Amino acid sequence: MSPTQWDxxxxxxxxxxxxxxxxxxxxxxxxxxxxxxxxxxxxxxxxRVPISFKxxxxxxxxxxxxxxxxxxxxxxxxxxxxxxxxxxxxxxxPALVVVFYELDWDEQQWKEKQSECATRVEIVRQSLQGRxxxxxxxxxxxxxxxxxxxxxxxxxxxxxxxxxxxxxxxxLFVLPHTDHLVGYIIRLENAFYEHAQTYYYTEIRxxxxxxxxxxxxxxxxLFVRHQFKIxxxxxxxxxxxxxxxxxxxxxxxxxxxxxxxxNMLEIKTMxxxxxxxxxxxxxxxxxxxxxxAQFRKHIDLCKKKIGSAELAFEHAAWMSKQYVFDQKSRIExxxxxxxxxxxxxxxxxxxxxxxxxxxxxxxxxVSLAGSNIFTIEVQDFVPFxxxxxxxxxxxxxxxxxxxxxxxxxADCPHPIRFSKLCVGFNNQEYNQYCxxxxxxxxxxxxEYSSQGPVCLVPGKTRKFTFKFVAKSEDVGKKIEIxxxxxxxxxxxxxxxxxxxxxxxxxxxxxxxxxxxARSFKRKPKLPDNEVHWDSLTIQANTMIISRVPNISxxxxxxxxxxxxxxxxxxxxxxxxxxxxxxxxxxxAGLKPGQDANLTQKTHVTLNGTEICDDSYPALLPDIPVGxxxxxxxxxxxxxxRCGTVGTRMFLVYVSYLISATVEEKxxxxxxxxxxxVTIETVFPFDVAVKFVxxxxxxxxxxxxxxxxxxxxxxxxxxxxxxxxxxxQLQLSASMVPVDQLESYVENVVLQTGESASExxxxxxxxxxxxxxxxxxxxxxISWKRSSAVESVPVICTVxxxxxxxxxxxxxxxxxxxxxxxxxxxxxxVRYHLQNKTSLVQDVEISVEPSDAFMFSGLKQxxxxxxxxxxxxxxxxxxxxxxxxxxxxxxxxxxxxxxNFTNQLLRRFIPxxxxxxxxxxx
Length: 921
Description:
Elements: H1 10-13, E1 18-23, H2 31-41, E2 51-55, H3 85-92, E3 96-102, H4 110-127, E4 134-141, H5 152-165, E5 172-176, H6 181-210, H7 220-236, H8 240-255, H9 264-284, H10 288-302, H11 312-322, H12 324-339, H13 352-366, E6 373-377, E7 385-391, E8 395-397, E9 402-410, E10 416-417, E11 420-425, E12 435-437, E13 455-456, E14 461-468, E15 478-489, E16 495-501, H14 509-518, E17 541-545, E18 551-556, E19 561-562, E20 566-575, E21 581-590, H15 596-600, E22 602-605, E23 619-628, E24 633-642, E25 646-662, E26 665-682, E27 685-692, E28 701-703, E29 708-716, E30 722-731, E31 736-737, E32 748-750, E33 755-763, E34 777-785, E35 795-800, E36 805-807, E37 811-816, E38 820-822, E39 827-835, E40 841-848, E41 853-856, E42 860-865, E43 870-879, E44 883-886, E45 889-894, H16 902-905, E46 912-916
Parallel strand pairs: 1-2, 1-3, 3-4, 4-5, 6-16, 8-17, 19-26, 28-36, 38-46
Antiparallel strand pairs: 7-9, 9-14, 10-13, 11-12, 11-15, 15-16, 15-17, 18-20, 20-24, 21-23, 21-25, 22-24, 25-26, 27-29, 29-33, 30-32, 30-34, 31-33, 34-35, 37-39, 39-43, 40-42, 40-45, 41-43, 44-46
Helix pairs in contact: 6-7, 7-8, 8-9, 9-10, 9-11
Main location: Golgi
Keywords: ER-Golgi transport, Golgi apparatus, Transport
Domain Trafficking protein particle complex subunit: 263-323
């Protein structure tokens, strides 16, 4: 059960004052309105009328008014008084709503302004629908008004405005914003107070009218409720005599209620509330004897109302709250005496001889030797001192003092002085910096001293602020409060240590925090040096983080990176420290935690003059670069080789040591700054390879010992210019070049999208398993960026050439003829027929004529070609037409190989030629 359950609510304990709301004031952005508001609420003296002011918007939603009952015949109340009723009339439902509006009597746009003011008043009335709250209008004017009756225009317009707003003349006020603003405000307050008095008088009459419909048989609770409301409204009206009278009547009605187990606690609680009000008003009327008599009467009437045996503990708790302060004071003084090696005071009405014997026993007991220190773990119950410790931030830099506050609050009836407050940490070296001690005499324990370091006043929150310098080795670690010890007494007498584990709190803290979070009550404003206890949270640990580095790290590079190149990343480090940055170290490379394949194919080095192989790491840690003077700049080139395409994240981490002075203590701080950069790796170029015949026709297979062409096409895919240093064709053993292999792209510069091509004439000797594909070899391209410095090594990209199917051909035919002909000039053509088999081949040859040519030679013939030998055939073609003309076609039939087709032979011999026009002269 929460320890605050039996405490009186705030709205019961405070002085009831008339509640007036002010609308139309912009206290944030309007200086005039702010001055008006300050005059109402700032520095209010005791002689000013008791009014509680609050600024609200004009369309504020006030609590809805329920439909009034015309009969209570079948109505059964659920309780005596609703829990939020007092707070509603103190803070939510105003007695008067004042509409402030800036309007001068000589306003040129009077009609529009009058209409706007009437609209605002109507909005307020709509939000107060069903309530008797008064409405008034205050016109804020720049000029001082003339005496009444002298300004005819003002009188006329005031009457028109009252008519438009449906107000009486007593509800319209003028507030000139002059040097005498406070005087006008006080006069306004008095007028507001009269309106509020009228409102509460009306409310009292309304409640009294309800009593006519009640009967004591079924409406006993309502009699108490209405009598309490009349008394409370009388307090709001500042009619304390009538309020006291009605509270006494309500108190008597409470004890007339029929009590049973289900409502016993409700009756006692309500009786306690009314008893408090009666006693308070008696003291206010300077009749303390009446208050004491009322309190005794209250105790006598209630102490026998125990209820069921199972709820006896609840009755005991309620009774203890009624006169708790007297008992607590006596118990507290006795405990302090025991701590000071003195005997406690005897209970009242004790026998004198028994008291004397007891005191002798106490004297003998305190003189015994033994442990004088008692440690009490207070976290598991509700102690008389509450404790909460809170670090001021979730983390502290190592060069900033660690600060935290310890809040203590005493719930005992008298001020109490402790001898020592100390805080323990998980690192015990910090304990020595967080101790508060006080030396005092025995008689001073219960004496309040504003100078006492550890003196607690009941109900007041005391804050102790500590600070210390964290150690450099604790960077990255948590500092945690492990205990808070509050020591009462001294080691010479008896010493009690109140111990809180962690950052404090007790058995009731979580429930108190939950109730505070769920509470909708308006918290009273406290002085600047005080805090709301329930709003304090415990923060028992903090993190020590490294000092903020005062260096800049810049990365310069030209993305994207190209596969296998030595990609240059220039790291520029500049010191902005005021002293020397010592032992500067650089860590650069692939950021850990990425795909394993990327790690295996990424290599980093500081030497950019040679290609790094697989033995080089992906990350270079702790590269020493010396010291940096203030303002000094350092550049370091890091070379990265990426073997595969993809996106990589690279880390550059710079650490150094710096001396710093914190709280007059010099420490060495390790600082670091890291930068990450994402670099995309792409192929530098795309290489296309194809096999073509001597006629540049695509080949899906080649023929043994027949020359063919290998064509390569290098297309630049880099956004940067590339220089092809050279290229090299490395043929396999099954391929031979027809002529000398040379590079035709040496020192060629390729821009983005440009391409360079090469052509190589090759021949494949006969092979046994050519159908399964024969390896061609490798194509090696040596290149580098055009912008790279001379020392950067050349990169060699190896392209594995595709395999090619090799077939044997029984007869190979090739033709010797000029590159072009002329009309009506002889064109000699020589055909070579070579037998590629081991058999004698019988060959039938025929020539099909063409319309563009006449020719001489054998049109049809039959011959025999021996194995490995060749025959020649000579023809003279005579062109008849100019242009690209079809030659007479040569048809060959091998009698031993019927499936040998002319279509295959046409790959080797030309079928067309370009014929030029004959020139004369």
